[in-house]
Design a protein that fits this description.
With about 270 residues, the chain is an alpha/beta fold. The chain has 9 helices and 10 strands.
Length: about 270
């Protein structure tokens, strides 16, 4: 049961503190007869409940519906414009004619790239990911590789792998995981711990030969074969990348393709042709 709020921003603050999400809707354009004045705000939760109002009636109903679509698709911004013709909705009193424009902004956890490994490739991935507007989280157990100077602007975790998977790093459908640690054994340990975490993407570096051997080893350790087949390994689109920066570009290209719903299998096969 949601509590009552004095204002929209108090509701947003509590939602973010709780790890929730929603859409802030602000009436920014009005022409003719509209139910609310410019500046009216409304916070829409995933279940369609609201705090505040942009006017009620047909306009508000359609804005809430659009906001729920944004939450479902993690769409970050939208400008919603509605011409009010006076049609009643579910017994609502008809509105006078006018037009309203509502700026809608998704607020919640942003998509993030979680990099396991602070070496040359990990650093390059972090830089490219930040340029592509992803939040960046980096893990490495070595202080000389996991620090703010090496990864400015990133959330850096220098700790044991057990600690990293014990609540320090959030794993959900907004997380794209890149495994580029100092060795294949450690890569495999990270991959094994990600089973069942429900992340959006897991990519693991390595040659085809080493990846095949590692997959066999993980299968022997009881890791589900279906999960292993879901990994993108070797990681990245096949663009004949050689330098850390080129490898990072191939990885980010693959992540964007997954994120945008592209045919990644076809892209990988095409690159090998």
């Amino acid at each position: 049961m949601y509590k009552s709020y004095r204002n929209v921003f108090e509701a947003i603050h509590d939602a973010l503190q709780a790890g929730d999400e929603g859409v802030l809707c602000t009436l920014v354009e009005e022409a003719g007869s509209t139910p609310r004045s410019r500046g009216a705000r409304m916070w829409v939760r995933p279940d369609g409940s609201i705090v505040g109002t942009v006017g009620g009636g047909i306009l508000e109903h359609r804005v809430i519906t659009r906001a729920q679509e944004m939450i479902r698709d993690r769409e970050e911004i939208c400008y919603f414009k509605e011409t009010l013709q006076g049609e009643p909705l579910n017994g609502e009193e008809a509105l006078c004619g006018g037009a309203a424009g509502v700026f809608m902004e998704y607020i919640g956890s942003r998509k993030r790239i979680v990099v396991f490994g602070g070496g040359h490739v990990g650093r390059a991935v972090a830089l490219v990911a930040a340029a592509a507007a992803y939040d960046v989280v980096v893990w490495d157990e070595r202080e000389e590789f996991a620090n703010a100077e090496r990864f400015p602007g990133a959330e850096v975790h220098c700790c044991s792998l057990d600690e990293a998977f014990d609540g320090r790093i959030p794993f959900d459908d907004r997380a794209f995981v890149v495994i580029v640690t100092r060795g294949h054994v450690l890569d495999g340990d990270v991959a094994r711990r990600l089973e069942g975490r429900g992340v959006a993407y897991i990519g693991m570096i390595g040659s085809r030969k080493k990846t095949k051997a590692l997959m066999a080893s993980l299968t022997e350790r009881g890791v589900d074969e279906g999960f292993l087949k879901s990994l993108y390994a070797p990681i990245g689109l096949p663009i004949n990348a050689e330098t850390p920066e080129e490898i990072a570009l191939s990885i980010l290209a693959e992540i964007v393709a997954v994120d945008r719903g592209a045919d990644v299998k076809a892209l990988r096969e095409k690159g090998k042709a």
